Amino acid sequence: MKRRIYLCEGETEQRLVKALIEGELIAPGQQRVFNTAQNDVKKMLRRWGWGPVKFVLVVDADTGPYDMSSRLAENLKTLEKSHKPKLVLQCDNLEDELGRCCSITGDSLYWAFNASSASEFKKKFIKVRQEQLLEKLNRCGFDFDRLWQRCCEGNMLNSGLRDYLWKKNS
User: Fold this and answer.
1) β-pair partners for 32
2) Residues 3, 31: contact at Cβ < 8 Å?
3) Of all residues in the chain, what percent carry a pLDDT higher than 90?
4) pLDDT reported for residue 169
């Protein structure tokens, strides 16, 4: 049986992935904060070995630019040698992504978490008790089927890498 490891760009994405796992909306697995757009995945692989591991990379597509020579592309190539990684692209920041999933604006999402800015939202999002996070999002009208589904056209992915990712993740 393959282990599943979610590599999340930041702590807020990791908390969301953990809540989605606990809510049985995504497959179970370990969650790690590991920015695959900035860090070398080879070092991380030594920790988990080359055994049967399914990696899911949660990447913020607006922090590029990413092209075929970027760290992200190199990491994908490395993982493909013995794993079939899945790439989840977050086109904007997490609060914008959640706002789309909840059909509310960023300010309304801030209000739901008693925050007045993006940095305060992230702090409060992280502090919400894990078992209450999904419940809090559901009260905002959270629709899981809309999460990370937006096309990242025009973001920081260059067309060569976008075509490469499309072929690999289809």
Assistant:
1) 7
2) no
3) 19
4) 47
The separation between the first and the last C-alpha atoms of the chain, rounded to the nearest angstrom, is 23
Separation CA 162–CA 170 (nearest Å):
12
Work out the widest C-alpha separation in the chain, in whole angstroms: 45
Closest CA to 69 of 35, 33, 37: 37
What Å distances lie between residue 22 and 4, 86, 160, CA to CA?
14, 20, 36
pLDDT of residue 30: 92
Counting DSSP H helices and E strands in the chain, the numbers are: 8, 4
Q: Is the pLDDT of residue 50 over 70?
A: no
Asked if residues 70 and 59 have their Cβ atoms less than 8 Å apart, the reply is no
User: Model-level pTM?
Assistant: 0.81
Q: How many CA atoms lie within 13 A of 88 on its CB side?
A: 20
CA distances from 134 to 127, 139, 144, 163 (A): 13, 9, 10, 34
Strands (E), 20-82: 30-33, 53-60
